[in-house]
Design goal:
The structure is a single chain. The protein is of the alpha+beta class. It has one domain. Helices cover 36% and strands 15% of the residues. The chain contains three helices and two strands, in the order H-E-E-H-H. Strands 1-2 form a two-stranded antiparallel sheet. The longest helix has 12 residues. The chain is elongated and about 30 Å long. 0% of the residues are buried.
Length: 59
């Protein structure tokens, strides 16, 4: 089974794919609590139990 390495770069890529353009709002000294704001269109998207958002449903 192939292993996948999760790096900050590809994590950021996945975040951008899910939320669109993101903006880092706060980077604390220890780096364990990153809060970000995301594109306005996704603020209206409900968090669904199956993990699907507007992009997947209407894609």
């Amino acid at each position: 089974m192939e292993k996948y390495q999760l790096t900050l770069n590809n994590l950021w890529k996945y975040i951008k794919e899910i939320f669109g353009d993101v903006e880092v709002a706060h980077l604390p000294p220890h780096g364990n609590d990153i809060r970000f704001t995301y594109a306005k269109e996704y603020e209206r998207t409900p968090r669904l139990a199956d993990g699907l958002g507007d992009r997947e449903r209407h894609g």
